[in-house]
Amino acid sequence: MKVKTLTKQVANILGVPFSTRGFRETVAYITERIENGQKTHVVTANPEIVMLARADRAFQSIVEQAHVVPDGIGIVYAAKWTNQPIRERVTGVELLEALMAEANERQWGVYLLGAKPDVISLAAQKLAARYPNARIVGYRDGYFREEDEERIVQEIAEARPELLFVALGAPRQDQWMVKYRDRLNASLMMGVGGSFDVISGKVKRAPEIWQKLHLEWFYRLASQPSRWKRQLAIPRFVWTVLKEKWSSRS
């Protein structure tokens, strides 16, 4: 069944063009593009990604050309503070699972790249078991050297996956995909950060009550204290959004 075409909807948060589509609309939009043979680069952006883009013009350019979804409650709040219509989060791990469900229904090919060797292997096994009609056409851990990249690109290009999920950390994962975009033969390229760690079971996602309270970021910090430097982006993001809001009013 053909998915109804959806018009482009964008909210600008500190220079990053976020899609204002809800979760189900996003899945429908991406699915339609894949079915129509249109290539799509999805960036799942939270406040940390926004601040990275703000500090790096080259990365900002990459983000501006991608389909950016609001992976982070801070983005939803920032949209509310600035009167922009972002209604809900579109988290990377949930979007990955939803697209895998589409792959299961449509027998799409899927390639997984990134994370530690044991993590990616286990994630591939679990996804194959959960979505048996989706074709896992290949997977590779993220611990490769620059001289290995040509072989990896060729392997992905020959597999011609509809879905390419890359977990190399930001901004490297998006830089890598854009570098080889024209050769990868993938309909969808999407950076998925730590999603493979969650899918493999190596990292536990916050309990549902924490998610509903919008405290998933705090749960992750408590579970992984080494993330504290990265989490400093959150107060900097909030301050920058509010400062720009106040400046625009004055």
From TrEMBL:
Pathway assigned to this chain's UniProt record: Cell wall biogenesis; teichoic acid biosynthesis
Record-level Gene Ontology MF annotations: N-acetylglucosaminyldiphosphoundecaprenol N-acetyl-beta-D-mannosaminyltransferase activity
Keyword terms: Cell wall biogenesis/degradation, Glycosyltransferase, Teichoic acid biosynthesis, Transferase
Catalysis: reaction(s): UDP-N-acetyl-alpha-D-mannosamine + N-acetyl-alpha-D-glucosaminyl-di-trans,octa-cis-undecaprenyl diphosphate = N-acetyl-beta-D-mannosaminyl-(1->4)-N-acetyl-alpha-D-glucosaminyl di-trans,octa-cis-undecaprenyl diphosphate + UDP + H(+)
Keyword Transferase found: yes
Gene Ontology biological-process entries: cell wall organization; teichoic acid biosynthetic process
InterPro entries cross-referenced by the UniProt entry: TagA_TarA, WecG_TagA_CpsF
Keyword Transferase: yes
Its EC number(s): 2.4.1.187
Highest taxon of the lineage: Bacteria
Pfam families, per database record: Glyco_tran_WecG (PF03808)
Transmembrane stretches, start-end: none
Cross-referenced PANTHER family: PTHR34136, UDP-N-ACETYL-D-MANNOSAMINURONIC ACID TRANSFERASE (PTHR34136:SF1)
HAMAP family per record: TagA_TarA (MF_02070)
UniProt function note: Catalyzes the conversion of GlcNAc-PP-undecaprenol into ManNAc-GlcNAc-PP-undecaprenol, the first committed lipid intermediate in the de novo synthesis of teichoic acid.
UniProt-recorded name of the protein: N-acetylglucosaminyldiphosphoundecaprenol N-acetyl-beta-D-mannosaminyltransferase
Species this protein is from: Brevibacillus gelatini
